[in-house]
Amino acid sequence: MGFFKRISEGLRRTRENMMNAIEEIANSFTAIDEDFIEELEESLIMADVGAATASEICGRLRARIKQTGASDPARVKGLLREIMEEMLEGDCALDISRTPAVVLVIGVNGVGKTTTIGKLAAELRREGKRVLIAAADTFRAAAIDQLEVWAQRAQAEIVKHTEGADPAAVIYDAICAGRARGVDVILCDTAGRLHNKKHLMEELRKIARVIDRELPDASKETLLVLDATTGQNAISQARNFKEVTKLTGIVLTKLDGTAKGGVVIGIRQELGIPVKYIGIGEQVDDLRPFDAHQFTGALFGEEEIA
């Protein structure tokens, strides 16, 4: 199965939730009026797009209807697809141009952070990159063990310490090893303790100081992993982490298990952070770079366009 078809299948529940509601509204009206727009906005909120983002989408839709002279409710689906794609566009590429690039991966426990690192390592290895994983979530012994398994699967190298070790020390050793071995990308795991923001902030600042001191000219990314099944709670998590550290991108996991995939649009619009990767399954190759055109095409049930 091609990846577009897998995205389409992964978004099936979201598509049914959102598109069925939109089509039902379109079939219930003979003309586009304010009542029609209000019902449409409510359906977007129910699809976990978020109230602020739903309002923005409908504001743009009003302007687009006026611009195009559209009067048939059946045309709205196409206009919505255009608007959502525009809202999702942006710099979604991972910047690993200046090596050894460092990708710091953060997120609360249970969102799929460890498996995301393993899948990302595998994706980068497929691209011919030499990858090293820093097991800096020393708070959970299981995280280190899981990363070791994923490193073996992805044929990536790993630097680890014992449980309870200083995370910044793990990062430092990984950077030293990465430079010595000529790796292209260092993927850094971190602890998922958001309930104590002060401690997390101090830990992330210490890690950032080590990275900046040791690799001042390298490419650096900070990716926040979010679980799509949590809907609007994912946006709340992103806001909290955004207060703690500068985020460069989002990885949205478990899109195949939710009807709340509309949260992708809310994250992009409300937080101004690009979604860089999406996960639509459990297999090692089910994490892929985000593509706004492909995503909206799959969301609206369209065929793949070359």
Can you describe this structure?
With 306 residues, the protein is α/β, with parallel strands linked by helices. It folds into 2 domains: 3-88, Four Helix Bundle (Hemerythrin (Met), subunit A) (Up-down Bundle); 101-299, Rossmann fold, CATH 3.40.50.300. It is 52% helix and 13% strand. The chain is built from 12 helices and 8 strands. The chain has helices at 3-10, 12-28, 34-46, 51-68, 76-88, 113-126, 141-154, 167-181, 197-214, 232-244, 263-271, 292-299; strands at 101-106, 131-134, 157-159, 185-189, 220-227, 249-253, 275-279, 287-289. Strands 3-2-4-1-5-6-7-8 form an 8-stranded mixed sheet, with helices on both faces. Helix 11 links the parallel strand 6 (249-253) and strand 7. Helix 2 runs antiparallel to helix 3. The mean pLDDT is 85.
What is the CATH class name of the largest domain? Alpha Beta
Radius of gyration: 21 Å
Tell me about the largest β-sheet.
8 strands, mixed
According to DSSP, the number of beta strands is: 8
The neighbouring-strand order within the major sheet is 3-2-4-1-5-6-7-8
CATH architecture of the largest domain: 3-Layer(aba) Sandwich
Distance between the termini: 16 Å
Which secondary-structure class do the elements indicate? Answer: alpha/beta
Strand content: 5-15%
Provide mean pLDDT, rounded.
Answer: 85
Q: Which key features would you list for this structure?
A:
306 residues; alpha/beta; Rossmann fold; 12 helices; 8 strands; 52% helix
What is the gist of this entry?
This protein is an alpha/beta fold and 306 residues long. The chain has helices spanning 3-10, 12-28, 34-46, 51-68, 76-88, 113-126, 141-154, 167-181, 197-214, 232-244, 263-271, 292-299; strands at residues 101-106, 131-134, 157-159, 185-189, 220-227, 249-253, 275-279, 287-289. A hairpin with a 7-residue loop joins β7 and β8.
